Amino acid sequence: MSSSTASQRQLLLVSWNNIRTIFQRELRSYFNSAIAYVVIVVFLAIIGWFHTSNLFLANVATLRLMFEIIPAVFLFVVPAITMRLLSEEKKAGTIELLTTKPLHDFEIVLGKFLAAWVLIGIALLLTLVYYITIALLGTIDNGPVIGGYFGLLLMAGVYVALGLFASSLTENQVIAFIIGFVLVFALFMLDKILIYVPESLASIVEFLGIDYHFSNIARGVIDSRDIIYFVTLLGFTLYLTVVSLGRRKW
Which residues contact 80 (CB under 8 A, 6 or more apart)? Predict the structure, then answer.
């Protein structure tokens, strides 16, 4: 019994080391090229423009607009980050080199997913400068701010998983971007088309919409149903990506 437990622990340690190796490789590749810097600068520039416009032109000191704008910016930024993750490997043939090593498909998928998710997390972390400017100007309710950032991280995780899935479907990065954008845009729009949905299905469609759950969390109310939604969707999408990546063996 103890021998079996030790063996399982060793397997988990090996898997974690493989995931960490892929994660470090991908994150390093982002910062060794212009991708990370361009994405972060463009992301901060767009958010900063809306933030300063709201602050100085509308004379409103709040982060509410930032939390409303970032989900829309994610629609373009996340597919741009994820489009190359698997499609480039498949086109260059390096995906086969990865699989000749003692790596499982799920380790490759998780490593690449975590690298892209951390890059988005870094971009979000840098937006704290906008929080500081608001905090210096007056009092701020930290509950919605914490909920907003937590919700954005969960949303980004789902979008990264969807973008990674799109990247696993094709060798063309442009097609991967388009598929990824369509997937995240559809998920983003679900709770905004309720007037066109039969009343009997409206509650189901609303529940499937990602912005509906993000809005709940961004109000500072952490509901287990919202957490379950994000975790389930994230896990299911990563599972689909592993299956899609495994098609090359069929």
Answer: 39, 177
* Nearest partner of 209 among 222, 197, 221, 224, judged by Cα: 197
Cα–Cα distance for residue pair 162/78, rounded to 1 Å: 9
pTM of this prediction exceeds 0.85: yes
Q: Spell out the residues 6+ positions from residue 135 whose beta carbon is closer than 8 angstroms to its own.
A: none
Q: The tokens of 80 are what?
A: 């741009």
Q: What is the 3-state secondary structure (H, E, C) of 152-166?
A: HHHHHHHHHHHHHHH
Output b/e per residue, 154-178; b: 16+ Cβ within 10 A: bbbbbbbbbbbbbbbbbbbbeebbe
Taking the C-alpha atoms of residue 193 and residue 205, their distance in angstroms, rounded to an integer, is: 9
The runs of H, that is alpha helices, within the chain are 2-32, 35-52, 64-82, 87-92, 94-100, 105-126, 128-137, 142-168, 173-189, 199-208, 210-218, 224-245
Among the listed residues 174, 171, 153, the one whose alpha carbon sits nearest the alpha carbon of residue 79: 174
Enumerate residues 6+ apart whose C-beta is below 8 A from 7.
none
Residues 210, 217: Cα–Cα separation, whole Å: 11
What's the rounded Cα separation, in Å, for the pair 134 and 48? 13
Report pLDDT digits (tens) over 73-110. 999 999 999 998 888 877 766 666 666 667 788 888 99
Question: How does DSSP assign 75-122, residue by residue?
Answer: HHHHHHHHTTTTHHHHHHTHHHHHHHSS--HHHHHHHHHHHHHHHHHH
The position carrying tokens 């997913």 is 113
Q: Which residues contact 214 (CB under 8 A, 6 or more apart)?
A: 71, 151, 152, 154, 155
Looking up tokens 């066109």 gives 196
